[in-house]
Design goal:
A hairpin with a 2-residue loop joins strand 1 and strand 2. This protein folds into 2 domains: about 130 residues, Diaminopimelate Epimerase, Chain A, domain 1 (Roll); about 140 residues, Roll (Diaminopimelate Epimerase, Chain A, domain 1), CATH 3.10.310. It is about 15% helix and about 40% strand. It is built from 4 helices and 19 strands. The longest helix has 13 residues. It is globular, with a radius of gyration of 18 Å. The chain is mainly β. It has a 19-stranded mixed beta sheet that branches.
Length: about 290
């Protein structure tokens, strides 16, 4: 079958976006993975699928598949691409929409300057809800944050554990450019304390309103930017007393602006979303 798609990116975090309202795309994990393959498919960090809503009072359903074909709960940069896509395709006439995800409803808004702000909801800090197995660990308090010790390559590393609908482990480093992200990232992602794996964030604090960030994403690897990772890092930094809202987050793919006013308050993320090209690909419909 032929599948129409749009290639987009948000600060270099790149996506295949598919309209599943006007075409069928009931694919297996292997088929999603084949589409995301950068050598034999289209290539992307994530595949974003636009569907009709299942819940009342929302405009669309938003599904996300990582490059390994696994379905995940949330993608912040993808949410910005999502609202630009449905606007450009004429699927909505609204500048602000409500979107149903696996972990709740988010509210992206197309701003007049062309950027997009997404209300990502309140962060989850309770370890069991991230989920994170905190049993028999001796945490350290720093500011209002709880830092959890994990053994990484025989060394104890302290992490902030945050969920933005998907799990994040954030550590503060002195220099993101020399931090061994590609070596440590997989060890953190697959650490047995995280039953659903985890996104590993490496944050360098520049000043109280600016950080540098690299993220090794669960099921993808390092990406040029990670929206939920930026949100989680800012939450962790504010909780630790290192940052004040708003915070500019510098990634290899561009800059995001994150605002958060404290516990039980929503995290808001502002950044770009760009359409790169559109195309059509033949998909092998033999179930793999």
């Amino acid at each position: 079958m032929k599948l129409k798609f749009t290639k987009m990116h948000g600060a270099g975090n790149d996506f295949i976006v598919i309209d599943a309202i006007n075409q069928q795309c009931d694919f297996t994990q292997a088929q999603w993975q084949a589409l995301a393959d950068r050598h034999f498919g289209i290539g992307a960090d994530q595949i974003l699928v636009v569907e009709k809503p299942q819940a009342a009072g929302v405009d669309f359903r938003y599904r996300i598949y990582n490059a390994d074909g696994s379905e995940v709960e949330q993608c912040g940069n993808g949410a910005r691409a999502f609202v630009r896509f449905v606007t450009e395709k004429g699927l909505t006439g609204k500048r602000a929409i409500k979107v149903e995800t696996m972990c709740g409803v988010i509210e992206p808004r197309l701003e007049t300057d062309g950027t997009i702000t997404v209300n990502m909801g309140a962060p989850i800090l309770a370890p069991s809800h991230v989920p994170f197995d905190a049993r028999a660990l001796d945490p350290t308090q720093e500011g209002a944050d709880t830092l959890w010790p994990l053994d990484i390559k025989g060394k104890t590393v302290l992490f902030s554990i945050v969920s933005m609908g998907n799990p994040h482990a954030v550590q503060v480093v002195s220099n993101t450019e020399v931090t061994p992200v590609l070596d440590d990232g997989p060890l953190i992602e697959h650490h047995p304390r995280f039953p659903k794996r985890v996104n590993a964030g490496f944050m360098q604090v520049i000043n109280r309103h600016q950080i540098k960030l690299r993220v090794f994403e669960r099921g993808v690897g390092e990406t040029l930017a990670c929206g939920t990772g930026a949100c989680a890092a800012v939450v962790a930094g504010i909780q630790r007393g290192l940052l004040d809202s708003p915070v500019k987050v510098q990634t290899h793919g561009g800059e995001l602006l994150i605002t958060w006013n404290g516990l039980n308050q929503p995290v808001k993320m502002t950044g770009p979303a760009v359409t790169v090209f559109e195309g059509e690909i033949e998909v092998n419909t033999d179930k793999q």
